[in-house]
Amino acid sequence: MQAAGIIPNSQTYGILLDGLCKNGHISKALSLFHVMESCSLHLDIVEYNILIDAFCKDKKLDTARALFNNLSSKGLQPNVKTYTTMIQGFCEEGLLHEAKELFVKMEQNGCLPNDATYNTIIRGFIGQQKFYEALILVEEMVQRAFSGNASNFLLIVDILSTKGQDPALQELIKKFMPKDSHGMQEIE
After folding, report:
1. Is the same domain home to 10 and 71?
2. Rounded to whole angstroms, what are the CA distances from 103 to 34, 74, 129, 149?
3. Is-contact 146 112, C-beta < 8 A?
4. Is 62 exposed, middle or buried (0-12, 13-18, 19+ CB in 10 A)?
5. Which of 63, 62, 71, 81 is nearest to 27 (CA)?
6. Would you say residue 186 lies in a domain?
7. Is residue 32 part of a domain?
8. Does residue 135 sit within a domain?
9. Residue 163, number of CB atoms within 10 A of its CB
10. In this structure, is residue 89 part of a structural domain?
11. End-of-domain residue from the set 77, 109, 130
12. How far, in Å, CA of 93 to CA of 61, rounded?
């Protein structure tokens, strides 16, 4: 591109960064990111989200956390995608306490969770068989007019079929069950 006299902009670099990360070339992506910084390109939360997501998926949570914690020094604020990505990273590593702390901190920092955030943390708690904690989050999610997703429901059904009848799990299932036009549970 540059040989043809075309200077790449932030968007072009962002696309390259995303492609490198999605294809598992995280070290090359990080090198490109440093080039972007050295070229004084305006980096926004999108580029950081790409890297944070890549490091979380690559199980390099400490690096993702360092990028996340460094955002304010760059004049950036995490958005709902940033928080959700970090929460998912914590959940996948079994760090539910950290996930819950970040979930609470998110709202304290003025960033409201969305349905993806709720479903992510609920899936984390269900996956670790923390059904009561998941139920509390489901209650909160429903109060905020968000709904559970199909993957969480399937996870609950799978656990029920192999682990027996936990009362908290039964309550969780009722919250995920669709209601008919009269507001009644379709399946009992």
Report:
1. yes
2. 29, 22, 19, 18
3. no
4. exposed
5. 63
6. no
7. yes
8. yes
9. 11
10. no
11. 77
12. 8
Q: Residue 129 has which token pair?
A: 């068989």
DSSP code at position 114: -
**59 plus 123 within the same structural domain:** no
* Alpha-carbon gap, residue 68 to 49, rounded angstroms: 9
Distance of CA 123 to the CA centre of its chain: 11
The 3-state DSSP class for residue 179 equals: strand
Q: Are residues 61 and 126 in the same domain?
A: no
**Whether 116 and 161 share a structural domain:** yes
Instruction: For 58-80, write each residue's pLDDT tens digit.
Output: 999 999 999 999 999 999 999 99
User: Which neighbouring-strand residues pair with 185?
Assistant: 179
3-state helix, strand, coil in the chain (%, to 5): 70, 0, 30
User: Rounded CA gap, 66 and 131, in Å?
Assistant: 30
Q: Render pLDDT for 134-155 as a digit per residue (tens, 0 to 9).
A: 888 988 988 898 877 777 777 7
User: Can you say whether residue 170 is alpha, beta or left, with left for phi > 0 and alpha for psi between -120 and 50 degrees?
Assistant: alpha
- In total, how many domains does the chain have? 2
Question: 69 and 41, same structural domain?
Answer: yes
Residues of the domain holding 153: 96-179
- Say what the pLDDT of residue 186 is: 43
